[in-house]
Amino acid sequence: MKRCFLLLLFVMAALVASCNPGAGDEVADKDKATAPSDNITASPTTKTTGRVLGTAKSPLIQAFVPSVEAQKVVESARPLAELLRKRTGYFVKNMTATSYIAVVEALGQGHAHIAWLPPMAYVLARQRNGARVILKVVRHGQAVYHGIILVRKDSGINTLSDLKGRTFAFVEPASASGHLYPRALLMKNGIDPDRDLKRCIFSGSHDSAVLAVFNGSVDAAACYDDARTKLAKTMPELLSETKVLARTADIPSDNVVVSKDAKDSDYDTLREMAQVLGLDIEKQVRGED
C-alpha cells in the first residue's frame, strides 16, 4: 500500500514555479495507484526526435504544489524518484513550488515536464500555457473531493452564521478546497469574508490551516477534507478537539498535465512513464487541493 501511495506521487510530478531546476528533491503527499505492469518497459530516449529526457544530465522534473508542509513533500518524494529510476530507467528530480501559481508558471516556462494541478491552477495553466491533460485523478473511487470548514469544539461556533466577527484561515488564493469553494460556501450563506470576518489570512498549506485552528491562532479554517484526519495520525487529539462545521460542494479532482509547448517526443515519454506505472489512480494529491 505504501508503495502504491508513492507511485501516485510520481505522476503528481511537476509543479515547479519559482523553483530552480537545480534546487534538489522535494515532493507532495498523494495517494494510491495500481502496481506497474511487468511486461511494459520504457526507453529513456524519446521516440520522435531522439532527444534524451530522463537522463542524469537531463532529468524529468516533477514539481508539487505546497499542499502540505514542505518537509513532508520532500520525504515522500525521494523514495518515489528512486522507485521510478529502478522501474523505468528514468532519472527524476523532485521540486516543490512556493505557491500554486508558481507551479503554473514553472510549467509554462519549461521548468517542469509534468504537473498535477488542482482545478483552479489547471484552468490558469490552460488559459496561460495551453496545458494538456494526460490523466485524471480518482480519489476514493470518485473524480471529486471536498473542502471543509474546521473549528474547535470549544469555540462556541455551531453554524456558519456564528463565523461573523471571527478570524479565519484560508490556504492559498488559487486553492479550490482551501479557498475558492469555501469562500463561495460562505457567500452563499450570507457571509462576505472581506466584510463579515474579523480577519482573514492565507496559511500557505492545508496542514498550517488545520494547526492554526487547533492552536487557537484563528477561529476557523478551510482545508481539503482529508487534511485533519491525515494530521491526526500523529496528533490524534485533533479529532477530539476540532470538528467539521461545513462541507463544500463537489470539487473536480486534480489533472495531470503537460505544457502545450512540450515536444511530441517529450509527451510520448511522459505517457510511457504513466503506462509503466500502471496508473489506475484511486486517490488524489494535495490535495491536496
Question: What secondary-structure arrangement, pairings included, does this model have?
Answer:
Layout (H helix, E strand, L loop, with lengths): L1 H10 L48 E5 L5 H19 L3 E5 L3 H9 L5 E4 L1 H11 L2 E5 L7 E2 L1 E6 L14 E4 L5 H13 L4 H4 L2 E4 L3 H9 L5 E5 L2 H5 L5 H5 E6 L3 E2 L2 E4 L5 H13 L13
Parallel strand pairs: 1-2, 1-3, 7-8, 7-9
Antiparallel strand pairs: 3-12, 4-12, 5-11, 6-9, 6-10
What would you note in describing this structure?
With 289 residues, the protein is an alpha/beta fold. It folds into two domains: 2-142 and 253-276, D-Maltodextrin-Binding Protein, domain 2 (3-Layer(aba) Sandwich), CATH 3.40.190.10; 145-251, D-Maltodextrin-Binding Protein, domain 2. Helix content is 34%, strand content 18%. The protein has helices at residues 2-11, 70-88, 100-108, 119-129, 176-188, 193-196, 206-214, 227-231, 237-241, 264-276, and strands spanning 60-64, 92-96, 114-117, 132-136, 144-145, 147-152, 167-170, 199-202, 220-224, 242-247, 251-252, 255-258. Strands 2-1-3-12-4 form a five-stranded mixed beta sheet, sandwiched between helices. Strands 8-7-9-6-10 form a five-stranded mixed beta sheet. It has a two-stranded antiparallel sheet with strand order 5-11. Helix 1 crosses helix 2 and helix 3 (100-108) packs parallel to helix 4. The longest helix is centred in the first third of the chain and has 19 residues, at 70-88. The two termini are 22 Å apart. Residues 1-51 and 278-289 have low confidence and may be disordered.
